[in-house]
Design the sequence.
């Protein structure tokens, strides 16, 4: 399932509107719509907030969508080889998220 489809399905499962999520995330409804349609992707802080709110692991949100991987590769440093960038970035996100959860 693509990233945007997962977001939309998660929102619908909670019987929430795009505006409900936009208010919670402090973004516009159009931003939520853009994420759900795959036209853009959230920043790392928004990703973590979405993961928490929808109770969907970052691993599931990030790994299943090649568009998300490509987006993360473009956002990363050119110093790392592109083939390892998305894996390295995702690993860092998951490690940080797991570490934060253990600290609670």
Sequence:
């Amino acid at each position: 399932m693509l990233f945007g489809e997962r977001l939309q399905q998660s929102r619908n499962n909670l019987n929430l509107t795009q505006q409900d999520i936009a208010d919670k995330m402090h973004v516009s409804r159009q931003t939520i719509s853009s994420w759900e349609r795959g036209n853009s992707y959230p920043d790392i802080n928004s990703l973590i907030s979405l993961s928490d709110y929808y109770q969907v692991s970052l691993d599931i949100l990030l790994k299943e969508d090649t568009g998300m991987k490509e987006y993360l590769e473009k956002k990363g440093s050119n110093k790392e080889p592109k083939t390892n960038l998305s894996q390295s970035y995702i690993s860092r996100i998951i490690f940080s998220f797991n570490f934060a959860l253990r600290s609670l």
The radius of gyration is 14 Å. The chain is about 75% helix and 0% strand. The chain has a mean pLDDT of 81.
